[in-house]
Write a structure and sequence with these properties.
single chain, 229 residues, mainly alpha, 6 helices, 2 strands
């Protein structure tokens, strides 16, 4: 259900009295937008999965490691392209009808902070787009070429993602979940909760993995030093 703000502009966002004077309703359906998002993400995942299945100089990557590299490839797309668009055009998104702007207007039904260019959201997404986007693609390259710093990248990216996601949820919690229809199965639970909690669960797993890998490498280095002495 759309609401009319004090300016007389109809919009579907919460809180209902939100002022969005430049808002123009999407002319693409929710299904069109979601098909675009998940099909392109799926394409990145599929291509990366096929590439990581090739035998390299150090042999083939294991299934777990291939999935981790696929995750970074998808993150590179979402951070660099989707969130990169928001970081550049957040001020015109309510009125803009390009595909990525309509994607953000659709997502804003689950968190209207995006359609009003909330300060925290703009800052957080800008850092995410311009740091974790390129770093994610760098991580893909590092794992494919067996670079010695690959787990350092994994740790840095995952810590950044986790920190951003925790702040994202916590700031909205302090606002009383006022920017979405609390409990709505699609807008609240799927858009706001599910699509963001992934950046808590998966980075946590990757942080533990990087911790173990780096600790094992340091232990090996320490053992070599002690043998020399």
């Amino acid at each position: 259900m759309d609401a009319t703000s004090a300016t007389g502009v109809l919009h579907p966002y919460w809180p209902r009295d939100l002022l969005i004077p430049t808002y123009v309703a999407n002319d693409r359906s929710m299904s069109e937008i979601l098909v675009f998002l998940f099909s392109v993400s799926g394409l990145f995942l599929l291509v990366t999965w096929l590439i990581t299945g090739q035998k390299g100089k150090t042999g083939r990557l294991g299934t777990w490691r291939r999935l981790a590299v696929c995750w970074f490839a998808v993150c590179g797309f979402i951070h660099g392209v989707i969130e990169g668009w928001f970081s550049l055009y957040y001020d015109i998104i309510p009125a803009d009808q390009s595909l990525l702007s309509q994607l953000w207007k659709e997502y804003s039904k689950g968190d209207s902070r995006y359609v009003i260019a909330d300060n925290f959201t703009v800052c957080m997404e800008t850092v995410t787009a311009w740091l974790w986007g390129p770093f994610s693609f760098w991580a893909v390259f590092a794992f494919l070429t067996n670079k010695p710093y690959r787990f350092v990248l994994q740790l840095i990216i995952s810590l950044g993602q986790l920190y951003g996601a925790v702040l994202y949820f916590y700031t909205e919690h302090r606002d009383g979940y006022s920017h979405s229809e609390l409990g709505h199965p699609i807008y609240f639970w799927f858009y706001f909760v599910f699509m963001n909690v992934l950046w808590i669960i998966i980075p946590l797993v990757l942080i533990v993995d990087a911790w173990r890998q780096l600790s094992a490498a340091q232990t090996q280095t320490d053992n070599k030093k002690s043998k020399r002495n």
